[in-house]
């Protein structure tokens, strides 16, 4: 068992909806949700306070082809509802592992989730509950990446852990370009200038303005969240600084 001490006291984990699909083409793989929950529990047992922002791309994306000719605002609200579905699934997986969890939604759905209130969210974290933020920012035209940056700042998280299917940020798509170079560390400005698809530019700018680091890492490998939290930066790419 990993005996290293965590480098962070409070983190925000950004999960894409696609991460919950597993090998499926659509929807939720409950086995993947269980595996993610086990990783979160292991990190929490190190004494780390964890908040999660989950996307909805496995069900619906407001800017995707599946949105068709639906009004962008309406499509984004549908996407927000998809994130609520994912949040409830993840909550169920965590509670099956006896991890106390709260879902807080930016859209008022009292039967499923608490409304997002910053002070209440912080209090849940202090009581060692995992808090899952759903429905993005509650506003159309903002992605769940922006929601992750915003919520992380509101709860004073020390880092955003951006879970992906690749082990960091590359100079090009490593699935297409074999010569793509992986960065160990990169500045916010370089991410924006090179238009690297890490998070959307609004989220990157918000993190840059508030000096909030982002660690982009591969979620599909067991134990990577613990490695990231305990300072093993070989698991991904650290975004921060203005070099």
Please tell me about this protein's structure.
This protein is an alpha/beta fold and 243 residues long. The protein has a single domain (10-239), classed as Carbamate kinase. 33% of the residues lie in helices and 19% in strands. The protein has seven helices and eleven strands. It has helices spanning 30-44, 72-95, 118-126, 144-154, 188-193, 201-209, 224-229, and strands at 10-15, 49-54, 101-105, 114-115, 130-134, 159-164, 169-170, 182-183, 185-186, 214-218, 236-239. The chain has a nine-stranded mixed beta sheet with strand order 4-3-5-2-1-6-10-11-9, sandwiched between helices. It has a two-stranded antiparallel sheet with strand order 7-8. The longest helix has 24 residues, at 72-95. The model has no long low-confidence stretch (mean pLDDT 92).
Which properties best describe this structure?
single chain, 243 residues, alpha/beta, Carbamate kinase, 33% helix
